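Data deposition worksheet. Section B asks for the primary sequence of the deposited chain exactly as it was used as input, without tags or linkers unless they were present during the calculation. Section C holds the resulting structure in token form. Section D is free text for depositor observations; keep each observation to a single sentence. Incomplete worksheets are returned to the depositor.
Section A, Depositor: J.P.
Section B:
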Amino acid sequence: MTENIAISEQIIEQARSWYVRLGSEQANADDWISFTEWLEEHPLHVDAYDLVELALPDTKTPFMPSDDVDNVVPFIAKLKSSITAPKNTTFVWGRFAGIAALFIAALTVYYTNNTLQAASVQIYATRIGGHKEIVLADGTRINLNTNTQISIALNKKTRTVTLKNGEAFFDIASDKNRPFIVNAMDTIITDVGTSFSVYASNEALTVSVADGIVDVQSAAQTTRLTKGQLAIQKRGDNKFVVNAIDIESISTWRDDILVFEDSELSIIIPELNRYFETPILILDQKVADLKFSGVLNISDQNIMLESMVSLMPIKSKLDNGKFILTSQN
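Section C:
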């Protein structure tokens, strides 16, 4: 957090509004994108949101153990020193001092109850068709696929990522004393140094391991996955189904490529629609049953559809904002 820099009441109020907005059930992908853009506008926006998060904690936010007492008093002192009035402006100290007191009270309550909230939670999101790579201080790399939202909380005992929706590929820097945890769909994925992908869709959670070992834990089952395995958990079901997977296909989307092998179009098209604003529809069951094997470049939707049409007995037509696939016959 930036020290000795003024945070105005206006910025604090913006941060509070974002906190309430994102905590509601109505928050959508556009909200998260706009929030990310707001955070990137100025470093003080990040600082303000961190402070609001301490004053108005969400019970789903990751916590660190309170036995880390060395962090408590220095953080309170740092909090006090970081709140300064802007020069040559009118500043209502009574109101802001009350906010500061609430921050400190929040820390005291958490310490008393054997928990202390991590001071910084970073939030990232991508739009439909977007990719983003995040490099953490420890060297861990996180690649976000299309329409994905995550939050990252780091402290000296754990590294925690919450995947709200979408897909992320993790290349983890090994640290046996500081496990890497991914929370998704009420499931916990724990790793100490490996590469794996987590995809939370409307239908299921899929965890695919490209290298190393991860433990996947739901309310009813704990499963250990090794290189070349994937676990699928349907929404509403606490059990996993484990299958083999070609590790080369786990994260080809990072290169704007999707690989399919003897897959029906009824399965392929919903996967393709994740990457494009203009949906692709199939109105003919015969077309839906057609199978395709090959590589599709998803960097350009028109070129991709032209490739499919050249390889299969289908036609593509743009109609009322949608691509319709029909049979050539």
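Section D:
Confidence is low (pLDDT under 50) at residues 58-119.
Residues 137 and 154 are 10 Å apart (CA to CA).
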